[in-house]
């Protein structure tokens, strides 16, 4: 499994202010809202990227909440988290490296 590309990882970290989206403590893990291999619903209009690594589909979590999400102990509203990502993105500068990375990682299936 390939890691999330660094420009995307760094952007999500900055967008979420280095804090866990659930508790506000220091973030440690960038987590996929819709998993790397699942289909993101078309109505959300997220550009298809390799392994679903689009920033709108990623959130920063502390290790405790990341573990709880993966164990099914936390169920959250995925659409709401994507909307929060989009709102926060309006406050963060998009870098050239991020744009280039998104173009490079655009899914070959997306046409």
UniProtKB/TrEMBL annotation:
Limits of the HNH nuclease domain: 7-67
Domain of life: Bacteria
A Pfam family the protein falls into: HNH_2
CDD domains xrefs: HNHc
InterPro entries: HNH_nuc
Protein name, as recorded: HNH nuclease domain-containing protein
């Amino acid at each position: 499994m390939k890691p999330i590309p660094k420009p995307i990882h760094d952007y999500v970290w900055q967008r979420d202010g280095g804090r866990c989206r659930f508790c506000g403590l220091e973030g440690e893990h960038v987590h996929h809202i819709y998993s790397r291999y699942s289909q993101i619903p078309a109505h959300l209009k997220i550009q298809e990227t390799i392994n679903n690594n689009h920033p709108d589909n990623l959130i920063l979590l502390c290790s405790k909440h990341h573990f709880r999400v993966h164990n099914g102990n936390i169920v959250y509203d995925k659409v709401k988290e994507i909307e929060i990502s989009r709102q926060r993105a309006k406050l963060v500068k998009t870098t050239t490296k991020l744009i280039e990375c998104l173009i490079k990682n655009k899914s070959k299936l997306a046409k």
